[in-house]
Amino acid sequence: MKNLNQILAITVLLFTFYCCKENRENSIEPTKKETWIKLFNGKNLEGWTPKIKGHKLGDNYNNTFIVEDDVLKVSYKNYDSFNNAFGHLFYKNPYSNYKFRMDYRFTGEQVLGGKPWAFKNSGVMIHCEDPKNMGLQQNFPVSIEVQLLGGNGTDARSTGNLCTPGTHVFYKDSLVTEHIIQSSSKTFHGEQWVNLEIEVRNDSIIKHFINGENVLSYTKPHIGGAVNYNQDIWKLKENQPLKGGYISLQSESHPIEFKNIELLEL
Q: InterPro entries attached here (predicted)?
């Protein structure tokens, strides 16, 4: 009888433990599903507006930005010479805290008249100024540039670097005023697709990822440095933190393609 009571007691304890465990598991909220927004529909430039140096906002000069086969392309088919027509394709909404991702690849040959440094050179500009405020002859928006570079077939050439048109950042806890900070990425030669992801946390920290690898991190983006338009106005804003802004894709004289352009708000 004593043994039977012990067996019953153990059975009750095990049943109680199982029920409590099941209730706890059921009470845990399921992991929130990430909702990535497609910024590019694969069909046309809906939601995107070009701003090319020497031309008004919205003028897609020489069809620089085109869509073919579900891919957004920077094309120079209609150019005789580049003529410093630096371009940027702006997405319609500004953002502050988010992850941005896409795939890119350089193709073909650099257009005649492109700068030597612009060979297989493009970028994603984040925390951009409003394109409506850009001057007709302004080269680049005040922004943080996630620089994209392709290899020349021989030399090491990292991608996912940082360029700072009209801005400064802190890198490894120190203020950096140089225009370029190189990433730790490997070199990508030829016309292979490369995956880029950017994590942006307001004006605190920004991270660059190439093919899933964190290749560069920095903090405290803010206004600073030379701008070739409205210099007096930007000088008054010097040291102001960059907490958000527009996103743009760059055209710098070498054909490049973009696809799977998505954003996750944080």
A: AL/BT2_dom (IPR010496)
